[in-house]
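Researcher: Please translate sequence to structure tokens.
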Amino acid sequence: MDFHCDDLFEREALAKGFMVIAGLDEVGRGALFGPVAAAAVILDLDRLPPGIDDSKKLTANQRERLADEIRKTAKDYSIAFVESTVVDKINILAATREAMVEAIHGLKEKPSFLLCDAIFLPGVDIPQRGIIKGDCQSVSIAAASILAKVERDRFILQLAKEYPGYELEKNKGYGTARHLRALRQLGPTPLHRRSFRGVLDPVFELPFEP
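Model: Translation complete:
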């Protein structure tokens, strides 16, 4: 597997004089359970691990391997979680933005330019570009999607042991039919997003992202 997302957007930013480019992406925005996660990644474009792509297109093993390689070769990276209680309080879009901003603040060096997956971060004093389906087009955003996905999945697997019966180890908190059935039978846990339709009234099936 030697294909990876293009670095065209990164090269364009470099050509404009932006030398520290961070890609950002989130994972867990549509889940019924657990935090939303975001990652910020500053890649070394001369040391790109082969195979970087949208995390949803990769198998779990491919994501794990690439996450390890990204951590080893990236110039910097940061991952942030915003918990379900905050999602309920401020809404999922605001929580997603908060996770991205926290991820940026977790970087050792302040980026000079941001590449974001279809989202704009108001109040951030860094030039930014939102790219529709950016995790399929920008290698930096794709790398961020991999790190966020792997880290969140690992966290959910830990929580699955504390909250058995919801098949969290399989659905990672998303609204599968079995998950919704468990909500009807067991009710929501403290980490379910009560503001999400389907948690307190789990009578229909939501889109599922494994």
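Researcher: Any highlights?
Model: The chain has eight helices and five strands.
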